[in-house]
Design goal:
This protein has helices at about 15-25, 40-60, 75, 80-85, 110-120, 165-190, 235-240, 265-275, 300-315, 330-335, 350, 375-400, 405-415, 425, 430-435, and strands spanning about 25-30, 35-40, 65, 70, 90-95, 100-105, 130-140, 155-165, 195-200, 210-215, 225-230, 245, 250-255, 255-260, 290-295, 320, 340-345, 355-360, 365-370, 400-405, 420, 440-445, 460-465. By secondary structure, it is an alpha+beta fold. The protein has a seven-stranded mixed beta sheet with strand order 3-7-8-14-11-10-9, with helices on both faces. A five-stranded mixed beta sheet has the order 16-15-17-18-19, sandwiched between helices. Strands 20-21-23-22 form a four-stranded mixed beta sheet. It starts with 12 loop residues before the first helix and ends with a strand. It binds one RNA strand of 78 nucleotides through helix 1, strand 11, strand 14, helix 10 and helix 11.
Length: about 475
RNA sequence: CGGGAAGUAGCGCAGCUUGGUUAGCGCGCCUGCUUUGGGAGCAGGAGGCCGCGGGUUCGAAUCCCGCCUUCCCGACCA
């Protein structure tokens, strides 16, 4: 291969990221600072993310609904920590219909408050619980330093909101979502290994009693929070009067949860798996799993290409035929930048031998395959690739997570990746001290890597690092 | 929002210091022919409110002021 079409990842990682976003035709910047235009290929990836997450959410029993984008400003102020947490990044509508509004209207930064209001209306009895809602929506959080997919002023996400009769029920459901929806999707579809853990008090969602996170490691060693689930205790139930009658006729406040994953996952996909040739999309996620690529625009070749694409499509593979416009080399690099997992290259030389060439995006490996074995080989290659993309990411995560015992060591380790350090070392001043170096506690775990129930459990371990 | 860098064709840049023909170059784009097994070649062609607004000047891409946008580093976040 001659020179790359992209900035080299090790020369300038942020520039490389921008190049991939542009050249893989994922997104453009919008005309207003911090907004983004998601292009068809980028949106196709989002639609794959949506459908995989949606099916898991429904399996967990939640139902989709839709709440309005405009929220009365007064709703936000009902929960003190919540409004304090969000007020710096709110977009507020003060004028509409040619007049000044009597009460300003907030563009939702998240929907806890409106949904709380309606939960209060809908929940009367313990028989109405649990109430399990989800919505797919856009939200607005005005960003000072925007970055496409990672931190945009408007982004797309799903936000789940649930109400439960007991703390135990709410805690269990938030964990169920965290493991069975987020962790399962991120690990098994997105092929990103993550640390599951609890946020420290300073990193917690505004108004939550507990925030859980999936922390992934990007190609440059920085952390990305890829999904979060919150226990909100009775904070929002009290602020919005979400009450129900218990079996013995008492009135009680609900325990609520909320949980979300956003278009940031696309940024995570790019930075977790991308290489110097562009995007690498894991097969289970890929909107396009195979591109069938004619070496030249020749009737015999084209007819073979169409036949192979039909066979693959019938076998359930997401496939596209390359139209053979332009040079072969150019077309190859274009599909590589887009990260399509498998190329099936078909030329006269292959056909003369009754074969095609199957090429893997992640390893670059190419093998000749007899025509009648294409479907089964593609199938195997997709599975292998899915497995090995995850395994490479796991190796990086393991190699670049270092066990340390002091703050100075943690700070050094965070230059390359993550540090694992006893939380006792950080309690008090330690966390704040690291923060001055832009290093934060990504999550807290028990010594065996499991999810703590409380942040004051003895023996907790903190995973620290720089983050997006 | 603080510190730094930059905005000239779709993308990447030169020109600005020292104001003065018709604002250039590479890639991409269009047409034609030859090509196509790893970013093709030749020939012809299209494409610019030089980020926006104001000022200085006989004259501004070039000098001055303001604003907007992008990127980097910080404080905030999914």
């Amino acid at each position: 291969m001659a020179e790359s079409a992209l900035t080299n990842r090790h020369d300038d990682f942020p520039k490389w990221y921008q190049d991939v976003v542009a050249k893989a035709e994922l997104a453009d910047n919008g005309p207003v600072r911090g907004t983004m235009v998601i292009r068809p290929y980028g949106y196709a990836i989002w639609e794959r993310i949506q459908s995989e997450i949606d099916v898991r959410i429904k399996a967990a029993g939640a139902e989709n609904a839709y709440f309005p984008i405009f929220i009365p400003e007064s709703y936000l102020s009902r929960e003190a920590e919540h409004v304090e947490g969000f007020s710096p990044e709110l977009a507020v509508v003060t004028h509409a219909g040619g007049e000044k509004l009597t009460e300003p209207v907030v563009v939702r930064p998240t929907s806890e408050t409106v949904i709380g209001e309606f939960m209060a209306k809908w929940v009367h009895s313990h028989r109405d619980l649990p109430l399990l809602l989800n919505q797919w929506a856009n939200v607005v959080r005005w960003e000072m330093r925007p970055r496409v997919f990672l931190r945009s002023s408007e982004f797309l996400w799903q936000e789940g909101h649930t109400a439960h009769a007991t703390h135990e029920d709410a805690a269990a459901y938030a964990r169920q979502i965290h493991y069975d929806v987020y962790h399962d999707f991120i690990r098994n579809v997105l092929a990103v290994p993550v640390y599951l853990g609890m946020k420290t008090q300073s990193e917690r969602f505004a108004g939550a009693t507990n925030t859980m996170t999936c922390e992934g490691m990007m190609g440059d060693g920085k952390a990305l929070q890829m999904a979060t689930s919150h226990e909100l205790g009775q904070n929002f139930a009290k602020a919005f009067d979400i009450t129900f009658q218990t079996e013995d006729g008492q009135s009680a406040h609900c325990f609520t949860t909320s949980w979300g994953a956003s278009t940031r996952l696309i940024g995570g996909l790019i930075m977790a798996h991308g290489d110097d040739d562009g995007l690498v999309v894991p097969p289970r996620l890929a909107p396009l799993q195979v591109v069938v690529l004619p070496v030249r625009d020749d009737p015999e070749v084209m007819s073979a290409v169409r036949q192979i694409a039909d066979d693959l499509r019938r076998a359930g593979v997401r496939v596209k035929v390359d139209q053979a416009r332009g040079s072969f080399g150019r077309r190859v690099t274009d599909w590589e930048i887009k990260g399509v997992p498998v190329r099936c290259e078909v030329g006269p030389r292959d056909l003369a031998e009754g074969k095609v060439t199957i090429a893997r995006r992640d390893s670059g490996e190419k093998v000749p395959v007899p025509l009648d074995a294409v479907v089964s080989t593609v199938h195997d290659t997709l599975e292998t690739q899915q497995r090995e993309i995850l395994s490479r990411a796991e190796t990086r995560l393991a190699e670049r997570t270092v066990d340390v015992t002091t703050i100075a060591e943690a700070s050094a380790a965070a230059k390359e990746g993550f540090a694992r350090v006893s939380f006792d070392v950080l309690r008090g001043e330690g966390e704040a001290q690291l923060r001055t170096e832009a290093i934060t506690v990504r999550c807290l775990q028990r010594a065996d890597g499991s999810m703590p129930d409380r942040d004051d459990e003895p023996g907790l371990v903190a995973i620290v690092g720089r983050s997006y």
